[in-house]
Amino acid sequence: MSIKEAFDLFISTISSPELQAELFWAKAVFIFFTVAFLLTIIYFIFNSSYLRYRFFIDFQDFFNLEPVGLRKIAGRWKAVRKRIETGSEYEYKLAIMEAEDLFNDVLIEKGFAGDSFEKRVDSVEKIQLPNPDEILEAHKIRNFVAHDPNYKINKEEAGKVLDVFEKGIRGIESF
Questions:
Q1: How far, CA to CA in Å, does 152 sit from each of 81, 90, 137, 138?
Q2: SS3 118
Q3: For the chain, how long is the longest CA-to-CA vector?
Q4: Number of C-alpha atoms within 13 angstroms, CB side, residue 100?
């Protein structure tokens, strides 16, 4: 038997109506699972943030000529600054804590190493962060605000602390 005859016999066996009738349910089950898995994959792709963060945001920022994530940082900073305008000591304290959280998030996002805030600040080079000592002083005030409910702070002092964090964020992020 030649290779061509063997191949023709194989094709005729596979395409025989009897074998196709017996395999109908197996094909139907495989088709069902294939469609179900494809729909599941499509669902998770569109409902996850992967595409949004890996493609659409970068694409949008490219055409806006802004660094990635800059709009988000600027929006968070605007909300922090708005707290100072309320005239409430409670809001001043929240503004200080949120400002440090934003600064810390920027440090982490930029990949500065360290298990604590102080170590991350120390790992930033002087060119990027011109005021590390002021940042650490502002961090001490933030700790007083966070851990001492009797700590008093006024608008001017809170504004100075926010200015320090803003200068640090601008140095690292350039927003």
A1: 19, 10, 16, 15
A2: helix
A3: 98
A4: 26
Q: Which amino acid is at 99?
A: A
Query: Under a CB-based contact definition with an 8 Å cutoff, are residues 92 and 158 in contact?
Result: yes
126 or 164, greater pLDDT: 164
- pTM for this prediction: 0.61
CA distance 80 to 170: 15
Nearest 5 degrees, angle CA 169-CA 101-CA 160? 60
User: Which is more confidently placed, 66 or 141?
Assistant: 141
Look at residue 61 and tell me whether its pLDDT is greater than 70.
Answer: no
Q: What is the pLDDT of residue 159?
A: 92
Cα–Cα distance between 107 and 124 in angstroms, integer? 8
Q: Centre a 10 Å sphere on the Cβ of residue 65 and count the other Cβ atoms it contains.
A: 6
Four-residue CA torsion sign, 113, 115, 119, 121: positive
Give residue 115's pLDDT: 87
Conformation bin of residue 65: beta by default, left when phi > 0, alpha when psi is -120 to 50 = left
